[in-house]
Amino acid sequence: MKQLVNAFLAIMIAAFALMYLGSWMNKSEGYSGGNTLTIYNWGDYIDPELLTQFQKETGITVIYQTFDSNEAMLTKIEQGGTNFDVVVPSDYAIAKMKEENLLLPIDHSKLPNLSHIDSRFMNLSFDEGNKYSVPYFWGTVGIIYNPELTHGIKFDSWDDLWDSRLKNNIMLVDGAREIMGMALNSLHYSLNDRNEEHLQEALTKLNKLSPNVKAIVGDEIKMLLANEEAAVGVVWSGDASEIMDENDKLDYVVPKEGSNVWADNLVIPRTAANVEGAYKFIDFMLRPEVAAQNAEYVGYSTPNKDALALLPEDISGDERFYPPKELTDKLEVYDNLGKKMLAHYNELFLKFKMHND
Ligand code: SPD
Asked: Where are the domains of the chain?
């Protein structure tokens, strides 16, 4: 009898353990057990061949998930229950994650290839000393346009977007900071403005743009603009470069009122399950030949000076995508606006989106 009771107890304990493990794995997104590494990156933001190469070299299996905005990524990580090992937030999102204690400090001694990063992209205001982040790609926000379809408009001013000849002919990237920033800059305000009157003025101005707006879209914007579904787009510079690879009739410009210079970086969340694997991956991505291959594939600008030297001159010498420091010094980096103000920017952007439906 005693043996029977013991066997019954053992079965019950095993069943409970299995149930607990099952529910934990369901709750935990980005599960990195054993020899796996979970990466959470923007869509279309890595050459998939490099993931294969990394897996072959290290024997680590990569689990790869994507997001389409800093806000979506932040919400997921702030909610908890994730075990991403490497994430790729932008500047202001890094500042917010640091503030919320969501990141592990980076041990520079584990990243010998960090020396390949141009000092211009190190030590930026959102993470002085690069205590928590490693540069991945950078760029600007600007206007891509098809000169054959835009009546000779130069697009050297944001105000050119409001030209009535562009009716239903503009696509906008689906980003609250980008589009609110563009409207604020067009009014000669900072893209980090917190003044409520200015923000309402920006929304009113954006609503006046609606007749010209054909769509507000995510990564599909590249395909749509390359296929000439619209003559004009407000996009990240890297997307512009990729679109222009497909359709060389188009051009890209950063308007004179100013714009955003941004930096996307690799970070290791505090909840990472494979920290050693994360270091291996980050150091791999910092290798000049790897960073060069990645930059050529995704079309974005690399902060890796030794990778830049490996790129063909028509890429590395193109000042639309590699603007000199004198120019980028005149552009603004997004500040961490704080939870409340960031939510307010999102809310105003949502109002504008609803105005376009
Ligand atoms: N498809 C990849 C898009 C990455 C863009 N990151 C830019 C963020 C600017 N805040």
From this structure: 35-138+264-328, 139-261+334-355
* 334 labeled part of a ligand binding site: no
Mutate which of 264, 298, 328, 342 for ligand 1 pocket (most atoms within 8 A of beta carbon): 264
In terms of Cβ atoms closer than 10 Å to its own Cβ (0-12, 13-18, 19+), residue 51 is middle
Topology (CATH level 3) of domain 139-261+334-355: D-Maltodextrin-Binding Protein; domain 2 (3.40.190)
pLDDT at 17 over 80: no
- Residue 157 CB-density burial (10 A; 0-12 exposed, 13-18 middle, 19+ buried): middle
Q: For residue 45, give the ligand 1 atom closest to its CA.
A: 2
Where do runs of H (alpha helix) occur along the chain? 2-27, 48-58, 70-79, 91-99, 176-186, 196-209, 221-226, 237-246, 275-286, 288-298, 305-308, 313-316, 325-328, 339-356
In this predicted model, what pLDDT tens digit does every residue of 305-330 receive, in sequence order? 999 999 999 999 999 999 999 999 99
pTM of the model: 0.89
Instruction: Provide the CA 24 distance to its chain's centre, in angstroms.
Output: 29
Q: Is the CB of 201 under 6 A from ligand 1?
A: no
Measured from the CB, is residue 345 less than 6 Å from ligand 1? no
Q: Which one of 3.40.50.620, 3.40.50.720, 3.40.190.10, 3.60.110.10 gives the CATH number of domain 35-138+264-328?
A: 3.40.190.10
pLDDT tens digits, 71-130: 999 999 999 989 999 999 999 999 999 999 999 999 999 999 999 999 999 999 999 999
Q: Which atom of ligand 1 is nearest to the CA of 42?
A: 2
State which of 39, 40, 42 you would mutate to test the pocket of ligand 1, scoring each by most atoms of that ligand within 8 A of its C-beta: 42
Q: Is the CB of 67 under 6 A from ligand 1?
A: no
Say what the alpha-carbon torsion angle 261, 184, 211, 204 is, to the nearest 10 degrees: 160
Kindly give the distance from the C-alpha atom of residue 236 to the centroid of ligand 1, in angstroms, as a whole number.
7
